[in-house]
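fyi for ur records
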Amino acid sequence: MRPEKLYFASDVHLGMFPENNSKNRERIFVKWLEEISLDATEIFLLGDIFDFWYEYPKVVPRGFTRFLGKISEICDKNIPVHFFTGNHDGWVFDYLHRETGMIIHRDIFETERFGKKILMGHGDGLGPEEYGYRLMKKAMHFRWAEWVFSHIISPNLGVSLAHCWSKHSRLSKGLKETFQGLDKEYQIAYCYQVLQKKTFDYFIFGHRHLAMDVPLNEQSRYLCLGEWVEGYTYAEMDSSGLRLKSCHGHEEMIFRYSGDPVNTGSHSI
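which gave:
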């Protein structure tokens, strides 16, 4: 029996402008999936795998055939693949589960692996300054909003609007993310808030587009998975621990905090 090994990735943004770059990144991501499937016992995709995804009742977005085919192949090997909806691909309904076999998560997920307690999710909307975003996200998922998008706005128009929005995103413009400090990183503040009530060994999020490995206290660590536009970063976990890596060897793309943990639990979420 082979040793258990888990893999985590997020923010691939397949389909992001420009199209040729996205197809090349899809090939890189699929190659990585093929390689890790040789020893993976579980795979976690933590949101924004697609730059835009919406499932109309009878239509799904064009493209992504290499990715969906590889995921289907992995699931057919009885390797569980967990797909977390992000802010770019939140309109996932039942298609991905039925066609590929992926397990869909729409919220933060609490679990335990190798005797370690883990809290994971995409990581959007966790900061106090994102209250307006959380309201907007909730409104977008009201049934009437989804009905309007499905029945009033044509697929061609809906996807075109999404692509237009994508061209103006911070990721497509190549804006570099930097570490803001323990007292300003909202995901870290959220972790400390959670730790006031419950203990976790690992917090794993995406969304932030900066690969970060930060100790929170003597027991807990926070990992942000980064992105697959330049960093190609992911996390790997086995019985020996949890590690951030880059499939292109770009270790400089990973921020590893070396200072002393500072409790920012006074921040309200």
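Residues 19-36 form the longest helix (18 residues). thats all i got for now
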